[in-house]
Amino acid sequence: MSLLCAEQCNRRCHGPKPGDCCNDHCAAGCTGPQAHECLACKDFNDDGTCKDTCPPLKIYNSKLEQVIDNPNAKYNYGAMCVKACPHNYVVTEGSCVRSCRAGLHEVNENGVQRCKPCEGPCPKACDGIGIGSLTNAMAVNSSNIDSFKECTKINGNIIFIELVLIGCFRDPHYQIPPMDPEKLENFRTVKEITGYLMISSWPQNRTSLSVFENLEMIRGRSKVQNQYSLVMVNLKHLRWLGLRSLKEVSAGNVMLKLNSDLCYTQTVNWSLLFKSKDQTNKSVGSQCSQQNQTCDYECSKDGCWGPGPTMCLSCRHFDRRGRCVAQCNLLQGEPREVEINGHCVECHSECFTMSGDSTCRGPGPGNCSKCAHYKDGHLCVARCPHGVLGDKNTLIWKYPDKSAQCQLCHPNCTQGCSGPGLSGCPGEMKHSTLAVAVVGGLLVAVILLLLILVLLRRRRIKKKRDLRRILQEKEVGRYCCNKSRLRVIQNRRNR
């Protein structure tokens, strides 16, 4: 027999009385009115207690005046709140998920898989020549080059030979058309090659390997002739390599052969890239020494990959986001910077641009010499905290004082404030203004009423005085008349 609930209980109760309603967080029945007495939760179950949200990862600490890690934080896992996600799930934004959303990639942090924002394109591992789907491929060609689009890691090798650029037959039954040179842009996102990079043919209108400008590492797990991991042969139109991001050739030797116009390679300190003393560089057949091609002045003695300050292996003075410069914008120039380990690091946007003094001491909003807008604790911010979740799930509201320092609003200001105390609350200001208006109106009304009463009283008094004067004048007239008559009568008698 089903239990009949009171109308206000919305069919969720543990008894027929109006006071027997279940908690609002209950999805079905309950054994009592509390959130931990629900038979099922509407949103999340936190150790047997139904809640609308799990404890957040961050909370606002009013004593430290900053956002800190919540020691009681939990993750959303289905309809449960858990302290840690299952080992086969990924942690992202306080939830346990099966895969990262677009723009994020998995990163292992202390044994926990987490979704982190990608710096540039998200890592995408692709099969190289001789691996997986390209096991039978001879080289990169028009039939497979689209498979390298947006790849950041190549598991295998990258090979370019002349036949695939001019067109050839892979077998009697399948013809491979010539490859469009613009398709080479697919390799601009590649950062790592686990095998080797071999190029023996390159488009004549491309004078460098600029499409590989973001390549950072060649691991050399497989090698050409079992000894070379970087091979450039017979590239007659190549003028410089342009491998500006290459930092490591983990294994295998380098061969640069029969590249008559290739310059700058003789300046490269290859030992900085090699991981073993046994690795060597074999560069022959270049006439570049006759052309007097030298590295940019801002390049260090480690050499360069081509002309200009962006092709240096390392900088003579300072590195500004991959470009070697003579000095950082410490006291002048835009944007203002700070020098850290030979790098020009841009000051945070909330730092006030100083004149004749350093704008910041380091990166981030906590290292500004002066704030451009407001200061919350030690951090420069565009606005003071406005409804930030703090301790015990309370909202933190702050206002800027005269020195642009963020100060806490009165605890009773639930919608922010413009100043200290209750008078700073927007609602209190409205109530105070209304109260003053009402009191002022009443006071004016009382004063007007008193004035009217005084005027009426004065008019009455004046009327009484006038009437009294008239009566007195009449009495005096009668008296005088009677006296004169009496005198006449007496005179007659005397006669």
From TrEMBL:
SMART domains, alphabetized: FU (SM00261)
Keywords, alphabetical: ATP-binding, Disulfide bond, Glycoprotein, Kinase, Membrane, Nucleotide-binding, Phosphoprotein, Receptor, Transferase, Transmembrane, Transmembrane helix, Tyrosine-protein kinase
SUPFAM superfamilies: Growth factor receptor domain (SSF57184), L domain-like (SSF52058)
GO molecular function: ATP binding; transmembrane receptor protein tyrosine kinase activity
Transmembrane segments: 434-456
Stretches assigned to the Epidermal growth factor receptor-like transmembrane-juxtamembrane segment domain: 435-469
Annotated CDD domains: FU
GO terms for cellular component: membrane
E.C. number(s) listed in UniProt: 2.7.10.1
Domain Receptor L-domain positions: 151-273
Record localization: Membrane
Any single Pfam family the record assigns to this protein: GF_recep_IV
InterPro entries, per the entry: Egfr_JX_dom, Furin-like_Cys-rich_dom, Furin_repeat, GF_recep_IV, Growth_fac_rcpt_cys_sf, Rcpt_L-dom, Rcpt_L-dom_sf, TM_ErbB1
UniProt membrane topology term: Single-pass type I membrane protein
Broad class of where this protein is predominantly found: membrane
Gene Ontology BP annotations: cell surface receptor protein tyrosine kinase signaling pathway
Major enzyme class: transferase
Record domain Furin-like cysteine-rich: where: 4-127
Reactions catalysed according to its record: L-tyrosyl-[protein] + ATP = O-phospho-L-tyrosyl-[protein] + ADP + H(+)
Domain Growth factor receptor positions: 294-425
Identification of the protein by name: receptor protein-tyrosine kinase
Taxonomic source organism: Kryptolebias marmoratus (Mangrove killifish)
